[in-house]
Amino acid sequence: MRFLKWFGKGSFSHGVHPPTNKEVTAQKKIRRLPFPDTLVIPLNQHIGKPSKLLVHKGQEVVRGEPIAAADGFVSVPIHAPATGRIKDIRLMPTSRGEQSMSIVLEVYEGDTQAVLWNRDIDPDQLDGEQIRQAIQDMGMVGLGGAAFPSHVKMTIPPDKTVETLVVNGCECEPYLSCDHRTMIENPDALMRGIGYLMRATGVNNAVVGIEDNKMDAVELLRQHIPAGSNITVEAVETKYPQGSEKMLVKSLLGREVPAGKIPLDVGAVVNNVGTVTAVGQLLARGEGMTERVVTVTGPGVEKPGNYIIPLGTPIGFVLKQVGYSGERNDFVLGGPMMGPSVSDLNTPITKGSSGLLILNEAEIQKETRRIWPCIKCGHCVNACPMHLNPAQLGQLAGKREYAMMAENFHLNDCFECGCCSYVCPSNIPLVQHFRIAKAFNREQAA
Ligand code: SF4
Ligand code: SF4
Prior knowledge:
Bound molecules: iron/sulfur cluster
Largest sheet: 6 strands, mixed
Distance between the termini: 47 Å
Radius of gyration: 21 Å
Helix content: 25-40%
Number of strands: 17
Structural class: alpha/beta
Shape: globular
Number of helices: 16
Strand content: 15-25%
């Protein structure tokens, strides 16, 4: 690592070092949770157009069968996560804070829940375009949290040249360890997925970037690199938000992604290890996405760990399975830095749910400390990986100068990592201000 840093690689400037809190779950093997009685499957689990309904109330479906189709290019289908009967189709709560049209599936008790529907494909015979189509058909989206349709990311515009597939194994959010366990337990599927995605994008090189607090994964994956392939595995500094695309491209390739641009603009396409592994597993079997690995953890959780959970499982069911203590709890879907809090226990696990973090009263109190005026200490400026001025943006947000924040102070370059809020000694909820400002500007522009 030190060698890499001399050459400006292995890390990025600014960022923070929150306690990782991964030790408990990172050492445990991935286990499977049982199926609940009822699954709640939103039609808008991904970025883009919601999926189009293919089923009706009362219809029987088998596990793996498509129950909603992609509605256009920036959309993906949804597959039944269990064998059962469609009980209802109605608005239900989601982690996005809004109700969403959802398929309510009554799960058949006693069924083996084997995947009974798949496509007969041989990925080794497919060309790049066919692989991208197969990836869309399997309903694959970025499993790191963004839930952006993977086939869209893999489609390189004709005016761009991309030569490197960056595989993101950083998992920089505290508490989460599902990617770590996925790498440790499925190295061959990950390598297979990398091969498929290299063909899908037409790139010649792939590099897996992993934070140096997971050296067991670095060493294991290096042993599983197929002979003769242009795949490398590199350790990068453990620092939040190392796993954000722009930071990782800088750390691994030494390239700055300019403001307003994406990794494609500097010759890289980035995918999360969970996504790539799932492609490696499912494409060969011709199956759609029906489940995912989720880290379930937090102070007071009786059985923390990484669990394979059917999509659509309500978080209330997950909580009953893992057990937790505390009279007042906060539930976060994802990691503590960027994940949304949810209050309705009917909210389901969806394709983008990497974690379920259960905070107890002591943790909540830490989050709700008194807010003081800005003391102009500059800590937020030194923490911001996008080199913004969060203190100034915060002051403008206080005056509701939202348009000015975007026009003159690069609000839209903020990717809501939360570093500024984390370091602020005055406890100013800067990132929340920025989310509100962006939402306001979006509404004004609509
Ligand atoms: S939340 Fe935005 S402003 Fe704050 S540190 Fe992250 S990128 Fe910078
Ligand atoms: S860290 Fe907080 S107190 Fe310090 S300059 Fe930034 S906003 Fe002000």
